[in-house]
Sequence to fold (197 residues):
Amino acid sequence: MEGERVKADLSVYEGKRAIRSVLARLPGLERLEPNAVTVSILVPAVLASVSLWYGWWVLAAVGLVGRMVLATLDGYVAERFDKRTRLGSYLNRLVTEVADAIVLLGLAGQAQLAWVALVLAATWIVNLEGVLGPAAGGTIQWTGPAGQADRLAILLVASLLSLVFPLDWNLVCAVLFLLLLITAARRASRSIRELAA
Fold:
């Protein structure tokens, strides 16, 4: 998203810079097609979802990390090797939304459906708020504390903790939902202030 103004404070979104610094040292990335990388995000998303459902915590962690890395890799390849396209921007939005839903559906194997539904609904609102700004001439809002990268990080930590002791995933969903409400309020207020200025 080079060239776009992004606000991402209170978010682990900035951690993508660390991933990019690692990617910069890897050879052969110029041969990758960013759109193919984007679509491949669905693979670790499905792995994470199924693993969360069945309580396969190591595989869940692998899937979540893979989801994070690929989500950074597609943008890095597109920007670093000048492979950005309008289709790529569209696929990036579409695939990440679908991947988000797939991962969160896996929570239904561990938590009550009502909590999972609330998290899914709040996630959709937060994601929508993030990209509505540019439609009105404003900026993208990636601010947390429950942006896309933040949610993946929370699920990753919860999965790793579940390796050590039983975790109440209803509580995890409740925390996620609360953080999503805070994020929705912060994104809306920021966009409104910006566009009203």
